[in-house]
Amino acid sequence: MKTIVIVGGSKGIGKAIVGNLVDSHKVINLSRTEPEYTHGNLTHYNVDILKDDLPVITALDAIVYCPGSINLKPISRLSLEDFREDFEINVIGAVKAIQKYLEVLKKGQHPSVLLFSTVASKLGMPYHASIATAKSGVEGLVKSLGAELAPTIRINAIAPTVTDTELASKLLRNEKMIENIKERHPLKKFLDPKEVAGMAEFLLSEKASSISGQIFEMDYGIVTFKI
What we know:
Elements: E1 3-7, H1 12-21, E2 26-31, E3 42-46, E4 62-65, H2 80-106, E5 112-116, H3 129-148, E6 154-160, H4 175-184, H5 193-204, E7 215-218
Parallel strand pairs: 1-2, 1-4, 2-3, 4-5, 5-6, 6-7
Helix pairs in contact: 1-5, 2-3
């Protein structure tokens, strides 16, 4: 049984990952909100990743960093503060968690780190300048630490397309928008959080023991939609 820290495990993709892992692993959830359910293997700390000190954890095998943002505006309407805030939550928060738990993670069982990017970092998508910039920082972090922390710690990222979460609710707020997004994906669908959680579970497992420094895109083919 591994001990896994999930930052942002109370909602969305993080919640789905907790659901996949909690029956067979000890899960420590760091989040501003309480999870909707309790479990004997689940420990929760009320934490704002950017403002609060992180709890001391003495044994750890994996870190999953889920917080993110979807800040879609034309470049003319994006402020410098928008760019700073997106970078803080997506990159600085992840760095803070990794630095806090690095030494204890090195002593873990097949230790690994999992971060989240977006398909917008690879594709030219309008109105994604701030979030694509921040998530490109995540991908650079994965590549750099994949080399630096090898062979002791693996680090990878998942880059999903639109996923049916509260964070993406503005993109899926009516039937017309839902159909448009489906139509723009070659497989005519968008992601369910459980699908992303399944990929996360695989990347944290020994089945992925030879995979590090990689970005795994989950996009149902080439995304062509405009917001």
